[in-house]
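## Example record

The block below lists the input lines for one assembly entry, exactly as stored, with component labels intact.
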Amino acid sequence: MFALADCNNFFASCERVFRPDLNGKPVIVLSNNDGCAVARSNEAKALGIKMGDPLFKIRDIVERNGVAVFSSNFALYGDMSRRVQTVLREAVPSVEVYSIDEAFLDLRGLDWDFDRFAKELSARCWKYTSIPVSVGVAPTKTLAKIASKLCKKYPKLKGGCYMHKPADIEKVLRNFPVEDVWGIGRRSIPKLADMGVRSAWDFTRLHENAVRRLFALPGFRTWQELRGIPCIEFEDQLEDKQSICVSRSFAHDVSDVSQLCTQVANFASSAAGKLRAQNSLCLELMVFAFTNRFKDAAPQTYGSQMVTFPDGTDDQRAIIAAAVQACRELWRPGFGYKKAGVVISRLEPARDHVGNLFADSQAAARNARLNAAMDTLNASFGPGTVRLGIQGSGEIFMSRDHQSPHYTTLWSDLPTVR
DNA sequence: TCTGGGGTCCTAGGACCC
DNA sequence: TCTGGGGTCCTAGGACCC
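Predicted structure tokens for the full assembly:
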């Protein structure tokens, strides 16, 4: 058996932990730049606010119903996520953190009362973190996902659902829309509709050859998993990233090349920091920037520029310099750039890297010490405390008009109790 | 006025080899 | 008319996830 522990309406729930006055009230959390609703409390969902709705289009609903609106606060969500993970790791030997708000638990070889286990684990998460968590247990990961969704739909399950009897699974799948199955995406829906497949159960009734032909290997795996045959690996080892991307939309259009370069330098700085954190080197860097595609009247452009590092690098100054140079090359006058980003790829573990015999090893060692010193300072005093001149103030041009305090990660933001 | 950010895996087809 | 057979590697794009 596998379990899936899924935090309900995660970002909205995090905001409510330190704002209990908002319990039972509609809450939404916005994407970066205060663009779209990306998390909604149950009350906000009931008002008809959809995932991804732009704030300006739901302004009426928000104002009429007194919806509490928050800018995204990833320092808070990341910290709350770690707290939930701690509770999960205390419960079972093996945990696969799948995303910021979801984790799989490996229950293979355990002879427990899984229904009780699921309900108790949910209760424990609530007790220690104040985050509501749905725990589904089933013979495959895909079925465990469905079981956890049942918990959200039926409060009487008390946050835990064990689904394993074939007759029960059939009953659930017959009532479960195929488009809500993990691994079935938007592009597959028309194909499935053509074949008369509406429920997850219908999908399991298709012939194996048809599934393989139309949905290839990933679709076949989902088909197997729904039929109770596990074929998606459990991965409790955290793998190194193969690529790292840092990108943002800007609060206003940027039509000045040096301003754009300053922003790109900050993206590169952030990407390079993540690269060093996983002890890798990158061999490739790409910068991209484009205009606002929603502005029909304005001239549109998309530019990207690639740089390679034949010897591999994780050096802050080298990566930022390359990104800024690439940005100058892709920039075209007369356009208002709305979004830009830096992607570093072809990553290799630093310890496996075969260096250049003729490189200046003393200079490399000096750079490594400099990078380590900057990383240490920025980890202690906050990102951007020590930075290169070209990064300017270190700020990204971003709107965040509804930001909550960093309750758990900044001393100055500690809640006051009287 | 205002529309997010960050990833992975798979496959078909091109380019190349003998 | 008719144009071999068998293989590997790489890449771009598609599809999916949160």
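Residues 94-226 of chain A form one domain. The longest strand of chain A covers residues 337-349.
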